[in-house]
Amino acid sequence: MPVFIRAFVCIEIPEEERKKIASVLSLLKKEYPNLKWVAPSGLHVTLKFCGELQEDQLQLFSFSLEKSLGEAVTKPFQIRLGSIGGFPSLRSPRVLWVGVSEGAPVLEELKNIVEASGFSAGLEKEERPFHPHLTLARIRYGKGVPQELEERLKKIDFSGLRWEAHQMILMRSQLRPEGPFYTPLETYSL
User: Fold this and answer.
1) Which domains does the chain have, with CATH numbers?
2) 129-166, pLDDT tens digit by residue?
């Protein structure tokens, strides 16, 4: 029987920046417990969600990605966070996120490398436009957010948070009742 692994490729956030985001989110969590807030350990910039992959497909994808990165001119780069937004909008979001204000073009290039590697391994290409972000919370369909939370979110500015990204990670995601649990499978230096 084939084994399936739920996986994605991401850029992780250093612990210091993670703690700063967590301190802001902890206040919001207490006031708005109905939202499904992301645990600080789960904060990352997703380059590609791969879905459920068979082990051999995952290995092929990882090999292809490592080869593509070896052929590309990649190097560490700066990421700076920006303001908070929502998908599809901040007024009626299903996802609350903080955007990337510096480093987005490099993230787009890396995303394209990841997509090409995924395609060569039989993964479906993501058709939605790429918008680099960190997911902060998810909202159940139709719930929306209170007007006062929307106004507070507009005032939160993470632009002081900046770090140098040195690697990409192929991450395993295991869904659990308390939230997803992530395990690094492969690390790719930039």
Assistant:
1) 4-189 (3.90.1140.10)
2) 999 999 999 997 666 778 888 899 999 989 999 999 99
